[in-house]
Design goal:
Blueprint: H1 10-34, H2 39-54, E1 58-61, E2 64-66, H3 71-78, H4 80-98, H5 106-127, H6 133-162, H7 171-203, H8 222-226
Antiparallel strand pairs: 1-2
Helix pairs in contact: 1-4, 1-5, 2-4, 3-4, 3-5, 3-6, 4-5, 5-6, 6-7
């Protein structure tokens, strides 16, 4: 799902930065005001785990790749703003040190995986707060991955159309490649995320209460979800 340099129309690249940066900046502000010292090592370990999972890329056609995202796990454990911050750190490191995703395209990658995916998780879990916690976790995981990949596919298709084929990937290729494969990847992510949450609920329930930088309206806790 990482977009490389040289693939997107400059106007689309600029739009990605203009949308993503204010959200990321606000998330960092919220987290910096509310984070506790004991939460920092937990965030680092979580970021490392998601980082490794995201590095396992595989081609899905049309010059695009697929991988797990991890935003739902981060959102459940750290809250939506904590998730935005963790995903941002992961994507910046991947871009600058491993060449996974382009520097000019970082705004779009942040928009897809550090903004759309965490907020999709937040709203889905809020909507399903009266459902079983594992049902809501699985559903949020799948929707977050699918929406992020759909946004990426639409950006690729729009770049192709806007540039007359000079940039991007034709929609007839990008949309089924990204959305089709990530519909399957979302199932895998849902199973992995639900399994991790179930494990933590048994061995470390306190880790499920470490949400930071939460919005003014409190996010649903797993106890509220399960109620």
């Amino acid at each position: 799902m990482h977009i490389p340099d040289g693939l997107m129309d400059p106007m689309v690249l600029a739009a990605g930065w203009l949308i993503a940066l204010p959200v990321v900046a606000y998330a960092i502000y919220k987290v910096s005001k509310t984070i506790e010292e004991k939460t920092v090592p937990f965030m680092a370990v979580l970021a490392a785990g998601i980082f490794v999972a995201q590095m396992l890329n595989f081609p899905v056609g049309g010059g695009t790749t697929g991988h797990l995202v991890g935003a739902t796990l981060a959102c459940i454990l750290l809250g939506v703003y904590g998730s935005v911050m963790v995903m941002t750190v992961i994507l910046v490191i991947q871009c600058l040190m491993f060449g996974d995703g382009g520097i000019t395209a970082l705004g779009l990658n942040l928009l897809n995986m550090a903004v759309i995916a965490p907020f999709a998780t937040f709203f889905v879990i809020k909507l399903l707060k009266r459902q079983n916690q594992y049902v809501s976790t699985f559903t949020a995981s799948w929707i977050a991955v699918f929406l992020a990949s759909t946004a990426c596919a639409l950006q690729l298709a729009f770049s192709y159309s806007l540039s007359g084929g000079e940039y991007g990937i034709e929609g007839i290729i990008a949309l089924p490649a990204m959305m089709g494969w990530h519909a399957l990847i979302g199932i895998g992510e849902g199973l992995v995320t639900t399994g991790i949450i179930a494990f933590l609920a048994k061995v470390s329930p306190e880790s499920l209460k470490m949400q930071i930088g939460r919005p003014e309206e409190p996010e649903p806790t797993l106890k509220e979800v399960a109620a």
